[in-house]
Amino acid sequence: MSFKAGFLTVALVAAVALTGCMSMDAEESEWHEPADPSDSYSPTAHAYGNVLINRMSSASGVTPVLFSHWAHRVNYSCRVCHFELKFEFKANQTEITEADNMDGQFCGACHNGTTAFGHTKDNCSKCHGYDDDENRREFVEMVTKANSSMIQPIMPKSSHGNNIDWSRALLSLKYSLDPGVTQMPYDSVLELSAEADRIPPAYFPHGEHVYILDCANCHPDIFNIKKKTTRHFSMRYITQGLFCGVCHGKVAFPVDDCERCHPAMKGKG
Questions:
Q1: Which domain holds residue 111?
Q2: What's phi and psi for 78, nearest 5 deg?
Q3: Which of the residues 26, 168, 174, 189 has an alpha carbon 20 to 30 A from that of 115?
């Protein structure tokens, strides 16, 4: 074989190998929205985490408010509303009046006509009223827009809840309305042994939670600060909306997404 022929052979092999590597990398890293983005999400993905706020509305002859968590958590941490603005975690436990909002409290902290649309008559129907088809359209539009310009999606898919893996979402959240307040750099991971012998341990990552919550959101009212001193902490009560169930199953990923907390259960359920 001549030097020229040998060189061409080596080059061809290298090119084929390089093409194969590029194809493999493309398959692993590129993400493509389906032709119809709505086909990528379950029929109820947009409704997960939606809350009907009706503590006082109906009694006052006003259409209740439908609050979509996903529309707010793309920009703000949970801490902003559930710590700084003093919204209770449980729906309809916070007494919210129009006068409070107009005074800059609760929703009015942002819905002031500057940060977000204000409390004016022409904006009433944006909150007081609900169109399921419109809500789904806005949800799909939000996720599609967020992912459209990235090789990898800003909001990666999940098979549960909103069909979004929020813990891996590449979002730049406002942790606090006060620019001087930042997250606590605490990333301890707790191993939590299950009561049943055949259930592998769960792992609680503080880092993922302090990114969006304040320590006081959980401690000491929901969990004791000292490990293994919280009584009745079991799946029985979590599924009833206590402990982790305060958020998980309502807004955070549901408790039937077992492997998210019990990674050793992956592929077994």
A1: 45-168
A2: -60, -30
A3: 168
